[in-house]
Amino acid sequence: MTLTASLVDCPADGLVCRNCGARYPLSPVHACAECFGPLEVGYAAAALASVTRAQIEGGPPNVWRYAGLLPVGQDPASRVSLNPGWTPMVRADRLAEALGMRSLWVKDDSANPTHSFKDRVVSMAATAARGFGYDRLACASTGNLANSVAAHAARAGMSSVVFIPADLEPGKIVQSAIYGGTLVAVDGSYDDVNRLTSELAETDEFEGTAFVNQNVRPFYAEGSKTVGYETAEQLGWRLPEQIVVPVASGSLLTKIDKAFREFVAAGLVDPSEWRVFGAQSAGCAPIAVAFEAGHDVVQPVRPTGIAKSLNIGNPADGPYALDAVRRTGGSIAAVGDDEIREGIRLLARTEGIFGETAGGVTVAVLRRLLASGALDPGAETVIYNTGDGLKTLDAVAGLVGPSVTIAPTLKAVRAAGLMD
Ligand SMILES: *Cc1c(COP(=O)(O)O)cnc(C)c1O
Ligand SMILES: [Zn+2]
Q1: Which end of the chain has the smaller Cβ count within 10 Å, N or C?
Q2: Which residues of the chain have pLDDT under 50?
């Protein structure tokens, strides 16, 4: 396979099986031919070690400042991207006070071009897809990925076909459709949709199609590392002591942990200890349940509940998320829909950040972990708000609204008690 500019001078030197360690050349495959284990991008140690703080700081204010640590070519013109990233790191003093914490930050990844962190992973997958000569992007999605794939395809002038469960939030359906690609609503859960697209990817008709979270998944997944890199750089080139990450497939959680390890290995931050905590909703908590039971294997579930962006019942990175959490001394907890709604409202009230349901899950799990003593209120903590509340308005629409509705007269204002 010949690679186009999108993969020329790429610091990655191959794909590595996370299960048995077998190595493969950079190519659009995601499963090991020896053992069917998942493949991950590998880098030449020298390439990683050559990246400096000054080089990164001199780069653009988006994910591409870390191009020397990502599986892409070094020519910016070759990239398929909405240039996401470098999102705000918000010092959350009022939320910290409400929860009795000493030092808390919210990494607000709703501030991306399609309003979720998925733009980071799609920029890597779409760039790799172009590098391998694909002309169509596709995915199975719980919503945010669909939004981002359709938008990236539109920006690049590629075609797209996006598969979603038919019962997604109206906002996410409209946002997926508006960019003009093909949107396929499937009567079934995300796991049903994912099974369908895995079968499609094997057919001749879809040979020219890159499924961003399937055949180019190793490239896709590396995009999540940029969340971890930014966390460290925005803290002033150091690592936090605790992080709380929302979990669907488990990929984001494992990649933030990988980003911290790479920064230490590359000498970009001083070595320090960090603990990784995962956040799931009770309606879909297969990894939290495995953690609690002490199992290494994640038993699939049929998802329910309002946190639809996290509703993956058979999480591909489950065992690796469990490993990251156990290795660092963290844990994974799950919260119910009412706690999720209250988490959304607490973040909005205290910090002026309106997160989607996944953000509510994360805030509610933070609270739960503090109450159980699993998380140290005195240790510096970063939580991740991964999507925008405007995408999931229905979750809280019935709980908040106008304080009062009045006629447009002073008399009415006075009668409503607003001038007392
Ligand atoms: C996809 C998604 C996640 C987590 O995804 P992983 O599959 O665990 O990487 C978290 N939050 C939101 C809003 C998402 O859309
Ligand atoms: Zn293998």
Answers
A1: C
A2: none
